[in-house]
Amino acid sequence: MPGALEAAALPAEGALEASVLGKMDDLLKRLDQMREEEGRGIDRELRQRMAHVEEAAKAVEKHRQAVLQTYVGKLKARMHEMIGSQVEPERLLQEAALLVDRSDIQEELVRLDTHVKHFLGLLEQGGEVGKKLDFLLQEMNREANTLLSKTSGLAGEALNITEMGLAIKTELEKAREQVQNIE
Is the Cα torsion angle 119, 181, 46, 123 positive or negative in sign? Predict the structure, then answer.
């Protein structure tokens, strides 16, 4: 570039420094305004993501009882296959109760709800909460994974739960991307 290496008249001693320092307060104010604006946008998005997680969890709850009935039916059919029609009703109920207990997703739904409330509380609190929010999102993701694993292999209502569980995981991942921008 012509003139890039040629020295023109230099400003008076200290004039450049004074000019830069004179603009510094204004620049810092504008930086703070931009960061606050960005923070409000992230806050809005994270709240929307948590609202979507709550909606999906409520939808899962609606299908939960039907899935438990599916487990009982599946167990009954399996036991009939294995030992014929000589299944004692009491034994069948005991096995069904054990399977249903291990397969029930109520505990995951309660924990997920608790984590969402804690997450929103941290947003209200403000301050340096980025790492705490990230940890909560990891916990919510674990609950979603457990929910999905407990309902895998079933048809009918369980497919609805799988769809909602995947929606939860998608929202959590999007929230996690935003939380990475929070101090």
Answer: positive
